[in-house]
Amino acid sequence: MGISRRGLLGSAIGVAATAAAGTVPAAAAEAASRGGRRQHTTLWDEFKAAPYTHPQIPYVGRAGYRGGAAFPRRPVVADVVRDYGAAPDGSADAAPAINRAIRDAGRDGGGTVYVPPGTYRIDDLIRIGHDRVVLRGAGSGRTTLHATRSLTDLIGPYGSRYGGDKSSWSWAGGLIWLCPQARWDALTDAIKDRDWPFEGWTGNRRDEWRTLTAVTAPARQGDDTLTVADTTALRPGARVLLHLSDDAGHTLLRHMSGDIPGAASYPWSDKTKLTSYVPYEWPCRVASVDHRRRRVTIDRPLPLDARPAWQPRLATPIRPLTGAGVEGLTLEMTETPQSPHLLDKGYNGVALQCAWDCWLDDVHVRHADNGFLLVAAKACTLRRTRVSGRGSHHPYCCREGSHDNLVEGFAIERRTVPAPPGTQLHGINVEGLSSHNVWSRGRMAMGTFDSHRGLPFANVRTDITVTNDGAHGGDASAGPLYGARFTHWNITVTNHRAGCVKLDGIAPYSATVALSEVTEFGQIDTPDFTGPLHTRIAAYGHPEAACPPNLYEAQRELRL
Questions:
Q1: Model pLDDT for residues 266-290, shown as the tens digit of each residue
Q2: pTM for the whole structure
Q3: Does 252 map to a domain?
Q4: Domain interval for residue 231
Q5: Which of 13, 290, 422, 559 is deepest in the core (most CB within 10 A)?
């Protein structure tokens, strides 16, 4: 049974509050607190008993690079100063030398391009488009790339497909941009032709994929084996997409929302941006193939049911960028005032687009419009990353069908100048049917737990301290803020604001566990769905009681 917000607030939390006012014995409040902790323990025990199918808590134990593996230490194949003549004192544009070194390393099969200590002026963006190439500085405190121009300056204006004067650089692109060549060519051609691309796994107009085989038998969330029509084109290790199409009743979108009754009456058909995201595309790898029984095992459990009504099939993705990384450097923009909302020029940090099993480690972004962007990214890890300076629109952005990514040991620092009028601050964003992404061990001196609508589902934020002063965003046509199985676990809110963090009244089949005491003020969240949401809340007011203290790390240990 789910525990409603009214039910719990009217019992344990309500008792504790009245005890503080002196109307009930303090012992009763202490007992209520212990009850919350018992409920907390019960949730974790429940999850351990059914980790792939728990109704409120998603399984994220395999998030990140190769399911949580250590990053490879690729040999150095180029030194941008010694081999390519880059100036480490900022006296000349180093972007041509750095990009030549990256390109040569990629054409030779990969390796590390080393950027020695110093400050390097870059008047162009840095692009990694080959597999197995790592751009490595001497550490974020020793190697700095100083970017002098925005993406508008370098590529041109990138307007919105939704009209008006919005700049798509407000949510796309990076001055370090990890993106496979085919996707890069399609994106830049589309920008020049003003033919706004779909930025997911199958190309601009979903015409770059081909079906490998139909799935011929129903499968359930948590299963890892599919029965298919034909195994001829399937090989162990192959990267594939599971495609699910919606039906006229939008039962797929309702399923992503937990199949709650309120989802049946939701006006799905007028959410045109959301419906443009389906067919739903979920990247996975083939683990094994049984040709005799026409069965294929995939590398992780299904995030959703695969019902016949949704025409499930396995298809080819666009070729992703794999095994690439950026390490040990600071990317600092020339400091300019933050632009009004949705008019960003594109002083953006690092973008990982159509990237799979890539990583960032010890990377610091300063004075950016957008810090770190995951766009149609799969199983990438951002470790020891930081955003600081004059303030960002999106410090961290996760969009367009991004799945199984891990952001750990991250920080968003307090802005160094006041926010100009008309600007917007979000925080750690997730949107666009993205799922099973994790934000872990974070310290946020500003921002919030942003959903940008688009029905993201089954995501986890854990072991985070936040000054909750940002706002969620998203166009109304993008649909609900949350799908099912969002979990916020061990969260301390320093300014006590509930918005975007306390989930039990707004996100279906969600869990809020070990959250510090908060109240509603500022932007007030309202549920998208009517009726019961089947949410859980536990250890409210007691982040110090979180056990386990970090949900992702505990799930990882459980997997091992």
A1: 999 999 999 999 999 999 999 999 9
A2: 0.93
A3: yes
A4: 211-315
A5: 13
